[in-house]
Amino acid sequence: MVSINQAKNQTSKASNQMSNKQTATTSSTDQINTNQTNNAAATSVTSATTGGAAADSQVLAHQIAADLLHIKAVTLSPQQPFTWASGLKSPIYTDNRLTISYPAIRQRIAQGLATTIQQLYPQVDVIAGTATAGIPHAAIVASLLDLPLIYIRSQPKDHGQGRQIEGHLASNSKVVVIDDLISTGGSVLQAVQATQREGAQVLGVVGIFSYQLPVGQANFVSADLPCTTLTNYTSLIETAVAQGYISAQDREILQQWRQDPQAWGAQFAN
Known about the structure:
Blueprint: H1 4-15, E1 30-32, E2 43-44, H2 52-70, E3 74-76, E4 82-83, E5 89-90, E6 92-94, H3 103-120, E7 126-130, H4 135-145, E8 149-152, E9 165-166, E10 174-182, H5 186-197, E11 201-210, H6 214-223, E12 227-232, H7 233-242, H8 248-259, H9 261-266
Parallel strand pairs: 7-8, 7-10, 10-11, 11-12
Antiparallel strand pairs: 1-2, 1-12, 3-6, 4-5, 8-9
């Protein structure tokens, strides 16, 4: 396995391309606490990330949040909400696929994910990416950690061998699944189940950003599976206020949405 210092050396060149306001850190993460249910703020640092590492994780959470806002991977519009594919009205829209086009941000994310996995899941022997957004990040992380890579389709192919999982996955493999965005958790948990059906053990899910929705937290509790993200809705809103993307009044609107998205969106129903 590649050491943290070695991985940092591989990413330092790309990180230097960012402005002086953007500083790389070596740790992560905000973890959905699977021992708490329906707590609107039930995101905590894993027990494996304590002391100085926990402080570093908060720095990284705000750095990644600033990155996402800067490249417009996250857009906030509390006064004119977006409509998600599900029909849900939302004051936030996220497209983390944009991160792969920015080398320094891409490498900062990969290093954060790799560090998180080494800290929380040292026994991992396979990295999995969700199709399609999780694949590029999983590929970089697997390279940093010198581990096998697989990716998981949303459903089996309807031709050929009908595979849902691409790459070699041995029975009893210990897998960490990487996704770019956690909302309700439904799609990534389906990927987890597909992996488990192949006889593998899924240790946990690691991602870039979480909306911290109560339904998502409850779904991971029900699945008895930890989910950890580099940054989250709370850190994003704090960063957005601090950097002038939104007002304090907008922050209140955004917090109301996270507590009950359905009720919040109902006010915009035709």
